[in-house]
Amino acid sequence: LIGTVQPVLVEGKSLKNRHAEGDNNSHAAQMTGRTESGKIVHFYADNIAQGQIVDIYIEQAYPHSLWGSIRKKSEL
User: For the residues of 43-60, what is the DSSP string, one character each?
Assistant: First the structure.
């Protein structure tokens, strides 16, 4: 899924603080959600509520989760 944009259902703030390598976006809250196929995705975002569906660009894959960044409709 690396390099794709996936719709992700936001579950809330991440329970653990995870980072992608070289990611310096620490001012935003680290959130977690799930893709349509149930894969866990972590990303930074502000002003995102639980239950929202957001588009996430998948940047990295780990054994049990994915890491990405939020994309606005204008960036797709």
Answer: EEESS--TT-EEEEEEEE
Give me the residue label for tokens 């653990």.
16
pTM: 0.82
CA distance 7 to 34: 8
Q: Which phi and psi angles does 8 have, rounded to 5°?
A: -130, 130
Q: Which of 6, 1, 28 is nearest to 17 (CA)?
A: 28
- What is the DSSP secondary structure assignment for residue 12, as one 8-state letter? E
Instruction: Assess contact for 4 and 56: CB atoms under 8 A.
Output: no
8 neighbors 66 (Cβ within 8 angstroms): no
pLDDT in single tens digits along all 76 residues of the chain: 999 999 999 999 988 776 655 555 557 889 999 999 999 999 999 889 999 999 999 999 999 999 999 987 656 5
